[in-house]
Amino acid sequence: MGVNPAVQLKDVDALLDPKALDKVLGDVEGLRRAPLQTHGYSGSVHERWEVERRGGGRLNLVLKRTRPAEDWTAYRTGDAVGRETILLSTPELAGVWEVFQCPYRAYAAQDGEAALLMDDLSEHLFPDVDQPIAELHEELLLDTLASLHAKYWNSEALRLPWLVAPAKLFAVLGPHSADEEVLRPHSFALFDSVREGWRSAFASLPTAVVGLLSRPAELLAKKCDGLPWTLLHGDAKVANFAVLPSGKCAAFDWEWIGAGPATLDLGWYLAVNGGRLARPKEAVIARYRALLESKLGVALSAQVWEQMLSVGLLCGALMLLWSKALALESGSEGAAREYQWWVGQLHRQVASL
Questions:
Q1: Distance set, CA 349 to CA 223, 313, 343, 346 (Å)
Q2: Measuring CA to CA, which residue among 13, 122, 124, 102 is closest to residue 60?
C-alpha cells in the first residue's frame, strides 16, 4: 500500500497558521499570497503562495478552497464534504500515489469548507490551447490511467460509499441537468449553456437517439452492471495532469473520483479533450485497451471490451454532447467532424438495442 505524503490539519484556519505551516513546510519565514485565476467552472477559489524559508529557499504553492454545497461539481455528484480531502485521508486509496505523483502538501475540511495546499505545477502543465498534445505525453497519460485502473481492478476499496457512482456521472451534465439546476436557489450560468446545447442537439438527432439520451441516468447506468469495475479519476482532462521532469505524472482535481468501468474515464478523456488528442479517437481507444490488458496481465474478451467501450462512450456523450452541439452551431473549426463522430457512436448504440 502506498503512503499519502500530505498532512491533515485540524481545520482550514490551520493552513494559515505559521506554526502549523512550519510542521508541513519546515522553517517558514515569510508568506506572500495572491489571487490565482483558473480556467475552471466549479466555483473553487485559488491562491498562489510564495513561501520563504529561513536559511534560504522558496516554495511556490497553490491553495484551493471550496464549499461543496456551493460547487456544482460537488453537490451534483453527492459530495457534501470535499472528495479530494477524503481521498487524502483514506488509507485504502493511498496506492493512488504509487501511480500518480502526489501534488498535495496539506489539507483540511471544516464547517462545510475544504482546503488543499499543493505544489504549484504551473510550469509543468500543458499549454492552455486547443491543440493536440505530443504523442509521448498522451502515451504517458493513457499509461498512467491504465495503471490506476489495473491497480484497483475489482478492488474491495470500490465499496467506499463516497465514491462517485456511474449514475452520477451520467447525470451531472446530462439532458435533465439544467432543469434540475433551476430548482436550486443559486444556479451556475454554465447550465444556461447546457440547456441550449441539449436543445440544439435534440433538434437534429434522430428520435431513437434522443430517446436513449433522455432515459433516467439510473437506468442508463445499469449498463455498467456485470462489468469489471475499478477506481476512476473521474475528470481525466489534459488540464488536470502535469508531466514532471522525473517523467512521472501528477494529477489533481479529484472531485469526481469514483467507481465504475474503466472506460468511463476513457469516454470522458475522449470527449473533453477533443482538440487535444494526439491521435485519432480509434487509435487512442486501441492503445488504451492494449495498455490496460498489459497491466492486467490478461486479455479482455471482445464481448466484455465492447460493452465497456459502449458505456464509456455513452457516458462521454451524456456529459459533453451539449457542448459539441454549441460548437457546431458556432461554426468552430473541426466542430462538425467532432459532433458527427459522437453521433455515429450513439447511432451504433441504438442499433444494438
A1: 12, 9, 10, 5
A2: 122
* E strand or H helix that includes residue 293: helix 281-296
Taking each helix axis from N to C end, the angle separating 263-272 and 281-296, rounded to the nearest 10 degrees, works out to 150
Domains within the chain, CATH numbers bracketed:
7-120 (3.30.200), 126-351 (3.90.1200)
The label of the residue with cell 519565514 reads 29
| Cβ-proximal residues to 229 (8 Å cutoff; 6+ apart), any chain | 154, 158, 259, 260, 261
Burial class (CB in 10 A: 0-12, 13-18, 19+), 233: buried
Q: Compute the distance between CA of residue 254 and CA of residue 246 in angstroms, rounded to an integer.
A: 22
Q: What is the pLDDT of residues 284-304, one digit of tens each?
A: 999 999 999 999 999 999 999
Summarised one tens digit per residue, pLDDT across range 220-260 is 999 999 999 999 999 999 999 999 999 999 999 999 999 99
Q: Residue 109 has which C-alpha cell?
A: 475540511
pLDDT the model gives residue 39: 61
133-165 b/e (C-beta count within 10 Å ≥ 16 → b): beeebbebbbbbbbbbbbbbbebebbebeebbb
CA distance 280 to 274: 10
Q: In the chain, helix, strand, coil percent, each to 5?
A: 50, 15, 35
Q: Note the pLDDT tens digit of each residue in 28-51.
A: 888 888 988 766 566 788 999 998
Q: What is the pLDDT of residues 189-207, one digit of tens each?
A: 999 999 999 999 999 999 9
Q: Which one-letter DSSP state was computed for residue 101?
A: B
Do the Cβ atoms of 113 and 69 come closer than 8 Å?
Answer: no
